[in-house]
Amino acid sequence: MSILRFLAVFQAAAEQRPALSGVQTWDDPEVEALRKKIAGLDVRIAELSARKTVIDEVILAFQIAQYEALGGSFESCLRLRLEFLRLKAARSGAEADLHAEREAAAEWEGCQPFAADDNAALDALGDDERAELRQRYRSAAMRCHPDRVPEAGKATAQGFFLRLQEAYRSGDLAALRAVCRELDGAATLQVDALSLPGCELLRRHLSDLQDHAADLILAVQSAQLDPLYRKAIHPADWDAEFAEIRERLEEECDVLQRQIRILSRG
Fold first, then answer.
1. pTM over 0.85
2. Which residue from 91, 117, 168, 211 could staple onto 113, CB 3.0 to 4.6 Å apart?
3. In the predicted structure, residue 5 carries a pLDDT above the cut 60
4. CA distance between the termini of the chain
5. Angstrom distance (rounded) from CA 103 to CA 97
6. Is the Cα torsion angle 173, 174, 180, 183 positive or negative in sign?
7. Is the separation of the CB atoms in 231 and 59 below 8 Å?
């Protein structure tokens, strides 16, 4: 990514920072000190947000290319996994097999487009936007499908999943991106300016910014260590990577087909 692109992302992140309103402006050393700390953190957060955005864009480009190269093979493999696990669960009735079947069903459902890919909504998008919409939806749906989360988180997951479906059906890329950001744990830093005195409001806001900066530092560090990102930063190696994955998927499909035939005969 060029330095001009990085600066554009940096500026966009800075412009999206929420303004802190309702704070009195008298000359007070404590107020000025707090303001300086907040200003410094705003710059730091904008920089970190820009770095995270660059990383996310690199990963997304890799995922889109991967899906375009392997989507058919991957979906065939998921379909066969589900068919095999259904047969196995039906035969054994074991809870472990039933759980594996539910997991496979969630994965299969999460990677499926809607009827006719909702052509009316998707046709309004450009090719790159359609590819991003599909990839973000499939990736996020597999993370928040209610069947893939613990019982305590199912209600929250269901809310995310329904919003994802609505954003995808309507071709609303901005809304889908917003849901993905929430899934990534992006903090919202909002303060009730009317209920707090000036210094206390600033302290609260500073504390929120410090927490948010710490979260972003961790997110950037984790993303940089992510094996997916390590692959994504080497585009020259993508074709070889995809060819290796395709070979593994085809081998798995062959094994699954043999196992399905054995269980079907039994």
1. no
2. 117
3. no
4. 56
5. 10
6. negative
7. no
